[in-house]
Design brief:
single chain, alpha/beta, 22% strand, four-stranded antiparallel beta sheet, ATPase-coupled transmembrane transporter activity, ATP-binding, ABC transporter ATP-binding protein, 7 helices, ABC_transpr_CbiO/EcfA_su, membrane, six-stranded parallel beta sheet, Rossmann fold
Length: 227
């Protein structure tokens, strides 16, 4: 099972140069792939294209061989969990319990299933005991883990994280890396990391895709791809 980006081209304005041009990549379940590159090379744009927030002018994105062009944002969200650079923008509820239950209730799940999934993923993200906490009183790392728990409770095939370590200190980076390793091992998710954090990527990514060509300051490995 894979997520395939096939020859997509995207520009924000008709007469502007393309941010991404004829870009292709394949993301497999069970692997963590980092997408790297300087500012302006299209990393965040690629994430928004995968999620359907933006639409390419050319090319297609396939999941399990099916073109996702006609998929709604909700349909994509059930298959691909998206964690924004600022996780607070994805939090809407007044308690941790309500936040993780929100998507499950919207999907029409029964209350017993919601309770079981909430318990399971709060435990996985080390948030047990925070059920009645006000989400906006959590630390940045805890907010991020809450959004991850909410996304994972929907049991997507893929996780897409945009600059997940940008506001985390070294301790929180380690905790996030451990969380992602647990998720990949427990669920077999494909994980896509959009990142500038080479230390984090070296430790946790199976493969790296560089946008904007080779960077002579970056050590190469056999799985690196340059676009």
């Amino acid at each position: 099972m894979n997520l395939e980006v096939s020859k997509i081209t995207f520009r924000y304005q008709k007469k502007e140069p393309a941010v991404l041009e004829a870009f292709s990549a394949v993301f497999e379940k069970g692997e963590t792939v980092a997408v790297l590159g300087p500012n302006g090379t299209g990393k965040t744009t690629l994430g928004k294209l995968i999620m359907g927030i933006l639409q390419p002018q050319e090319g297609s994105i396939f999941l399990e061989g099916e073109d996702m062009k006609s998929w709604s944002l909700a349909e994509r969200g059930r298959k691909i969990g998206y964690v924004m650079q600022n996780p607070a923008r994805q939090i809407f509820s007044t308690t941790v319990r309500e936040e993780i239950a929100y998507g499950l209730e919207a999907a029409g799940m029964e209350q017993e299933t919601i309770r079981e999934k909430s318990r399971e993923y709060l435990e996985l993200m080390e948030l047990s005991g925070y059920e009645e906490a006000f989400p906006f009183h959590l630390s940045c790392g805890e907010k991020q883990r809450l959004v991850l728990a909410s996304v994972l409770a929907m049991e997507p095939d893929y996780l897409l994280l945009d600059e997940p370590t940008s506001s985390l200190d070294q301790k929180r980076r380690r905790q996030l890396g451990d969380c992602l390793e647990r998720v990949r091992n427990a669920r077999g998710c494909g994980i896509i990391l959009i990142s500038h954090d080479m230390e984090f990527v070296r430790k946790h990514a199976c493969r790296r895709i560089f946008l904007g060509g080779r960077n002579p300051g970056v050590g190469e490995s056999g799985g690196d791809e340059y676009v």
